[in-house]
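Our collaborator T.R. sent over the components below with a one-line note: 'Predict the complex.' Nothing else. No constraints on interfaces, no templates requested, no preferences about which chain binds where. So this is a plain run: every listed entity goes in together, and whatever single assembly comes back becomes the starting point for the next discussion.
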Amino acid sequence: MTGSLLWTRPLGQRRLLLTLVWIFTAVGSSSGQDNPRIIESPSDQYVGKNEPAKLLCKAEGDPSPDITWYRNGQKVTTDKDDSNSHRLLLSGGSELFFLRIIHTKNLKPDVGTYYCNATNIHGSAISRNASLEIAGESLFVCLFVRLFVCWLVCVRVPLFVCLFVCVQLLMWFYLSSLLNI
Ligand SMILES: *[C@@H]1O[C@H](CO)[C@@H](O)[C@H](O)[C@H]1NC(C)=O
Ligand SMILES: *[C@@H]1O[C@H](CO)[C@@H](O)[C@H](O)[C@H]1NC(C)=O
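Returned assembly:
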């Protein structure tokens, strides 16, 4: 109804009406701008060990909200708390940057579920959860691939070459899982 009314008007009036509609929507939406609102949540990340990574979170509000990060429900320590930290808080907190993802047999401080918390004097808003996981082959897939390559080689070449290749492949598998690289 409003649409057809709008389109039967002369151009000048149509412009005026559109401008009024625009102003009302703008005023309407800015009235809720005091509380923090998350406008971009972090997304799931699959990262290689020792590689850098980042999680993003954008929020708005008035006053501009402070952003803090949580991992598995615990506040994340960054370079703001400890200058030696491998996690840096950039762009006023909206970027959590990992210099490298630490992931060894005994130390897994980075994988987990993250969210950001945007807070100002009026309240706080929480982002969606994003998981940070290690990318790449699982141990079994890795072993399976090596055995498969072994078999491919062995059906084509003399036995001693086959043994040589397979022993190398399996040695590498064993060593790399031992050293956790
Ligand atoms: C996000 O993760 C936290 C802890 O890891 C959990 O308590 C919370 O329920 C999750 N929130 C959503 C929306 O899934
Ligand atoms: C978000 O931060 C505020 C202020 O530090 C805190 O009171 C609140 O508990 C936090 N909420 C979550 C779910 O982490």
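Summary for T.R.: The longest strand covers residues 112-120.
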